What does this fold into?
Amino acid sequence: MLSARSLFQEILDDDESFALFCSIAASGESQGGWENGRIAALVPEGQRDLAPKIARHGADEDKHGRIFNALMKKRGLEPVPVPPETDYTMLLEKHGIGLPHDKLRNDEPLTVQDIVTYLSHSRVTEQRASEQMELLRRHFADHPGIGRAVRMISDDEDNHLAYCHEELLRLAYAGHGRAIQRALRECALAEIRIYRDVSLAVMDHMGRILGWPRAKSALLAAGIHAVYAYERFAGWRRMVSLRMPERRDALGGPARTAPEFA
It folds into this structure.
């Protein structure tokens, strides 16, 4: 039976597919760590209270990248090149979602509108990350090889999502509500399209590595297109709603260190 658990179990059991999965994940997390680090350094004067939280966000992302690399090292695997069509983070940047890297490489302070753009982008992408890690947690929380990593990263992603909700609501109350809703909608509609394309590309690579029959690959592709159709029709709305989270000040402390996996 084709299920999320059986699909990921196949990827997990094969060294080549596992190395590709971890390399894609590590690359995206490391890129997110760099972006958040630069944003923390460039926060405008009136929003300086945000800088430690953004830095914590970046530190968490860096930690996740190290965790995925450690999972490969534990199995004696080396990172592999990330195919550009599977690079979710860079494709978002290429399509103008979030803050452009040219701006982040400069030393000029960001504006409040830049912070709105950053937080709106993060709210959408962290929704996706939280849901993906919750799926892995549901099936692999007790797995002897990856369970501890899945639980830690899942907790962090939930914290990141809570932080985005809280900070966007703070900015909305300060008069930026319309700008936030515009940014959230634009980002959500672009993200679901990019996520579909990346998912198709990743499944294509995994299918070749694992030797999936054409019928199985076609069924998975149809499922990805069906998810996109639902998200394009109504599912994107879950990515733009804002509510005060139960986890308040979720990024108010230091980042947890990555566990040893070697």
